[in-house]
Please model this.
Amino acid sequence: MKMVRLRYPYIAVMKDGGLSYGGDQGWLSGSLLKKYGCGVIAGTDALLYLSLYKDYCHGREFDQEEGNGIWEEDRYRELVREMHRRYFPVIPGFGMPVWFLAAGMNRYFRKNRIPLKASFGVLGRNIWIRMAAMLAHDIPVILAIGPNLSLFRRKNKLNFYVKQGESYVCACQAAAHFVTVTTVEGNYLKISSWGKEYFLDIQEYMDYVKKYSSYFVSNIFYIRKR
Model:
């Protein structure tokens, strides 16, 4: 697949003297958001990006923000808590269902009179086409890595890679997690997760969904014009 990416630098937070790549629920107070807040982070970061770089997407929640896409940690945590309270509820012990995240983004769009709408899920064969189209229109893509659905296979996870020179090295794994795609780069997706830059192997994602999960819970949030 040819390269397609967001046009501008992704959301960054000044943390411990360096810049993150998106947010991390681990920075938040309270065990609920620390454990289950990945959807709140993904939704907040995507809306922050749109508000910063698209004039018609600017929301009142972000009226006080600077225009360089870099946030101080304390202010970023405050924004995430506000978005959690207004748009992105989390169920204790369960997390955020995909329809909660889509509904929260749509509430934000309606409240701020933004002519976009979000829905969860496209046909499996169309995921990469829709993803490329969103990125080409400078819209971040929230990707759900769904849970294992088999009663007998609950421990399977998807590899997250870091790039070392021309090689991709596995750094960690995840399942039942939301990430944000910022670039399609050949056979890999560049993503933001836990405040860091990682890569997913596209074929490995497809294999994970078909073997252990389902496109009903592992899919993209498709954002387009109303």
In short: The two ends are 28 Å apart (CA to CA). The first helix runs from residue 31 to 36. The longest strand covers residues 177-185. The mean pLDDT is 92.
